[in-house]
Amino acid sequence: MPKQLPVVAMDTCCSPLAREPLSAGQAIELSKLFKAMADPVRLRLLSLIASHAGGEACVCDLTDAFDLTGPTISHHLKVLRESGLITGERRGTWVYYRVHPEVLARLSAVLVPGDAIVPA
Amino acid sequence: MPKQLPVVAMDTCCSPLAREPLSAGQAIELSKLFKAMADPVRLRLLSLIASHAGGEACVCDLTDAFDLTGPTISHHLKVLRESGLITGERRGTWVYYRVHPEVLARLSAVLVPGDAIVPA
DNA sequence: TCCTTGGATAGATGTTCATCAAAACAGTGG
DNA sequence: CCACTGTTTTGATGAACATCTATCCAAGGA
After folding, report:
1. What positions of strand C are covered by protein, i.e. any atom < 7 Å from a CB?
2. Shortest CA to C1' contact from A36: nucleotide
3. Is the CB of B69 under 7 A from strand C?
4. Are A30 and A54 in contact (CB under 8 A)?
5. Cβ–Cβ of A101/B41 closer than 8 Å?
6. First-last CA distance in chain B
């Protein structure tokens, strides 16, 4: 399993869209997250993982839900992993994925004109 | 000004990602919105419009904020328009754009495991 | 050790997309 | 009617991306 470093720096990103104009750098960071979610297969993968019992799902479960080859699913999981939205862990034979709810929460907060992000 | 029909059917979309697996159709609809936001320029445009005084901004203001040609900005505005995120209105010489807050709110709600969308 | 199964990587291919220059379109004022 | 400014459309080009086949790595069981 490759590194799980969060590629997207959500720590500093961002005030709500409607509060103040996004800086160029913030926009680039945010766009990486949106790009990761800008595919139907990846959205379903994310949803399958997030809604699965125990908060995690193994790749075997995920592959069965699509008419796609294993490598393609693996590719999409890699995109989600590198964007920081999910993490994968091997336990014995199978690899289990789970979502990072904080990242989804921060992303959600950017879209509505509520409070700014509280610095961690 | 072309039609402003909301291309994305957010009316029926969706329960939160973590509540139940997205259907294939729902994932396609949602991905159109995320795809529209999956570009740094479009995110900054959205933010510039949403945070602008009066809730609207003219194209002339927007163009000045980027090192891009007019046609490129116009292209990005078209993508945002066709996704249903913004609307444009011509008043005399200038065209003014404003965001559709409901669409952003629904998108935001999908990301966090709160209540399901209340039917309008 | 060898074989089998789950999963990831590498390389190739067709499609989608961001950008620009050139042209067209829409208003305003002379 | 003509010239000028603001905005959109068209057409072309290069980069990014989704998908596949083939190959490889990791873990478990004979």
Report:
1. 5-11, 17-23, 26-28
2. D17
3. yes
4. no
5. no
6. 28
Name the DSSP class of B108: H
Model-level pTM? 0.90
In the structure, how far is the CA atom of residue A92 from the C1' atom of nucleotide D28, in angstroms?
A: 9
State which amino acid sits at residue B95: V
Cα-Cα-Cα-Cα torsion A96, A7, A3, A88, nearest 10 degrees, comes to: 0
What is the CA angle A108-A110-A115, rounded to 5?
105
H helix and E strand count, chain B = 5, 3
Q: What is the pLDDT of residues B23-70, one digit of tens each?
A: 999 999 999 999 999 999 999 999 999 999 999 999 999 999 999 999
3-state secondary structure chain A: CCCCCCCCCCCCCCCCCCCCCCCHHHHHHHHHHHHHHCCHHHHHHHHHHHHCHHHEEEHHHHHHCCCCCHHHHHHHHHHHHHCCCEEEEEECCEEEEEECHHHHHHHHHHHCCCCCCCCC
Tokens of A48: 């399958």
pLDDT digits (tens, 9 = 90+) for B55-114: 999 999 999 999 999 999 999 999 999 999 999 999 999 999 999 999 999 999 999 997
Residue with tokens 């046609």: B71
